[in-house]
């Protein structure tokens, strides 16, 4: 059997953490659980993941976010209009967080303390990753004059990020059509060119 590389070991540990968080919940998962699931020693886990549990939690969330953003970027390339891209991209993001078991485990009250420690200072990193994925779409829209010319791409992404976060945190029991109407009425006019 060939030796396991550092990156391969790290991925194996992150896979095991994701599995354990799904099975036991974030608060109840121990480094010992993760090591056992990865079939590695505890010492190997600590050497590979120097930030401990907080780094593992963030690594699982960031990897899932990257998977979602891969799909979102593809969708944005296919959308014909900026208003529909805003509405459907926002709908996708809200549905993703609400329905993705890995991410949902981090939003339950028992995980709140662990999540705060894990993501303290990481919001800028998450926002930068989101910007990296959607920047090309919004830059193209601005060149085509379908995005308001007086707004910055980074500010647009941050605004949408904040809208998505608030829609997830404060669910108003709108059905999908109601949420689409809300987005078309209040969010699209802020971003799309008239």
Automatic annotation (TrEMBL):
The record, for PROSITE patterns, names: HTH_TETR_2
Under the heading SUPFAM superfamilies, the entry gives: Homeodomain-like
Per the record, the domain of life is: Bacteria
Residues of the HTH tetR-type domain: 7-67
Q: Which keywords appear in this protein's UniProt record, sorted alphabetically?
A: DNA-binding, Transcription, Transcription regulation
Which residue ranges hold the DNA-binding region?
A: 30-49
Q: Give GO terms: molecular function aspect only.
A: DNA-binding transcription factor activity; transcription cis-regulatory region binding
**InterPro entries xrefs:** Homeodomain-like_sf (IPR009057), HTH-type_TetR-like_transc_reg (IPR050109), HTH_TetR (IPR001647)
- List the protein's name: TetR/AcrR family transcriptional regulator
Q: What is the lineage of its organism?
A: Bacteria, Bacillati, Actinomycetota, Actinomycetes, Streptosporangiales
């Amino acid at each position: 059997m060939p030796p396991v590389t550092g990156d391969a070991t790290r991925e194996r540990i992150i896979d095991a953490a994701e599995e354990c968080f799904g099975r036991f919940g974030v608060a109840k998962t121990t480094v010992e659980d993760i090591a056992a699931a990865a079939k590695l020693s505890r010492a190997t886990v600590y050497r590979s993941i120097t930030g401990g549990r907080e780094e593992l939690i963030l690594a699982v969330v960031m990897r899932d976010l990257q998977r979602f953003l891969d799909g979102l970027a593809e969708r944005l390339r296919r959308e014909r209009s900026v208003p529909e891209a805003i509405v459907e991209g926002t709908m996708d993001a809200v549905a993703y967080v609400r329905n993705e078991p890995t991410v949902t485990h981090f939003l339950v009250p028992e995980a709140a303390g662990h999540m705060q420690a894990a993501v303290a200072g990481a919001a800028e990193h998450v926002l930068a990753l989101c910007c990296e994925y959607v920047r090309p779409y919004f830059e193209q829209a601005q060149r085509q004059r379908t995005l308001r010319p007086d707004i910055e791409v980074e500010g647009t992404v941050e605004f949408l990020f904040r809208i998505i976060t608030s829609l997830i945190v404060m669910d108003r029991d709108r059905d999908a059509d109601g949420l689409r109407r809300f987005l078309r009425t209040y969010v699209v006019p802020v971003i799309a060119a008239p």
